[in-house]
Design brief:
The chain is mainly alpha-helical. It has one domain (19-40, 48-179, 190-238). It contains 8 helices and no strands. It has helices at 7-14, 17-38, 52-79, 82-114, 122-143, 147-161, 164-174, 194-238. α2 packs antiparallel against α8 (194-238) and α3 (52-79) packs across α6. The longest helix has 45 residues, at 194-238.
Length: 239
């Protein structure tokens, strides 16, 4: 892992990965979408159950992306490594997009099931806080002109936001909430019927591959941007 922390090695090692991940995510999204529409309606929820195949993967990737942002922020803050800083920065926008998608689809699912688009439920509120952490991270980086100072300030905020991840995950267990408890990863195994489990897992794999593709592509672009910026500064000094 620390060997790949060298930007040169990282660029060489990851060069073939983004096209593969983009292709895998496209195939999995197509298969997952077909399985989602092929699955029967739920006996209670009817066709609205299909929102699950978008909502659950989006919420999961929103959490996973922030975990990647937080861990990268730790290495950037402690070891002052530019690649870790680039990785944290690259995780922010796709993570925010997944979290926003989870909030929107949660409202679309909640209205027919609960009779309301939004409640200040512990799970919903903690996911909204997660989204605000994403926005705060990106806004903080953009508000400081000095990239090093911006990276350090944003890394501190990224680490603070990690506190919210277990709250999101265990909120339905710690408090009496309207949101249903976990049905996929829980003690005693999943409660999902196989006709729903297959499309859900396929879509989760598709979202994971999509995030990997976006993340790696953005990290590589960020490395190139910083190289160009350094080269321009050097040429300006020489001139």
């Amino acid at each position: 892992m620390f060997g790949l922390a060298n930007p040169e090695r990282f660029m060489r090692f990851t060069a073939p990965l983004p096209p593969v991940l983009w292709g895998v995510s496209a195939v999995l999204l197509a298969v997952g979408t077909w399985l989602s529409f092929a699955a029967p309606g739920d006996y209670q929820q009817g066709d609205t159950v299909r929102i699950m195949f978008v909502h659950v993967p989006a919420a999961t990737l929103g959490l996973a992306a922030y975990a990647a942002l937080g861990v990268s922020s730790f290495f950037a803050l402690v070891f002052r490594h530019s690649l870790a800083d680039a990785a944290a920065r690259a995780a922010a926008l796709p993570g925010a997009a997944f979290t926003a998608l989870a909030l929107v689809t949660g409202g679309l699912w909640g209205q027919p099931m609960w009779g309301t688009w939004w409640v200040w439920d512990a799970r919903l509120t903690s996911v909204l806080v997660l989204f605000l952490f994403y926005l705060g991270y990106m806004a903080l980086r953009s508000s400081i002109d000095d990239e090093q100072k911006a990276g350090r300030a944003a890394a501190v905020l990224g680490l603070v936001g990690l506190i919210n991840l277990p709250i999101v995950k265990f909120s339905v267990d710690w408090w009496n909430t309207l949101h249903q408890p976990a049905s996929l990863l829980r003690a005693g195994g999943t409660s999902l019927d196989p006709v729903f489990l297959a499309p859900l897992l396929t879509m989760m794999a598709a979202y994971g591959a999509l995030f990997g593709a976006v993340w790696l592509t953005t990290i590589r672009a960020e490395i190139v941007r910083r190289r160009v910026q350094t080269l321009r500064a050097r040429l300006a000094l020489e001139a």
